[in-house]
Specification:
The chain is mainly alpha-helical and 90 residues long. It contains 3 helices and 2 strands, in the order αββαα. The protein has a two-stranded antiparallel ribbon. Helix 1 runs antiparallel to helix 2 and helix 1 packs antiparallel against helix 3.
Length: 90
């Protein structure tokens, strides 16, 4: 079960980061896009560059999603075989 949860987290972590950064930008009235860094003043500091960098990390989804999917199905097969062994031993 832990393997299933870890694989899901690995697969969707960049998506969670993009949603979080988009929420932060929306709450502060900032614009966020892939084209360029937009100014975003929060507590007197411009965090536009940081928001842009984290937002662009969403492209890692093309790497983490397939890896997470393989790990998920591998963990699912391992879990099914473990349950099958436990049932056949009883």
């Amino acid at each position: 079960m832990i393997g299933l949860i870890i694989s899901i987290v690995i697969a969707v972590c960049p998506l969670i980061l993009v949603w979080s950064v988009d929420l932060i930008a929306d709450l502060n009235g900032c614009s966020l896009n892939e084209g360029s860094i937009q100014q975003c003043i929060v507590a007197g500091m411009d965090i536009g560059g940081v928001l842009y960098s984290i937002f662009m990390s969403g492209w890692y989804l093309f790497i983490t999603f397939p890896i997470g999917a393989v790990l998920f199905f591998g963990s699912l097969i391992w879990l099914a075989s473990s349950i099958n062994k436990m049932i056949s031993n009883e």
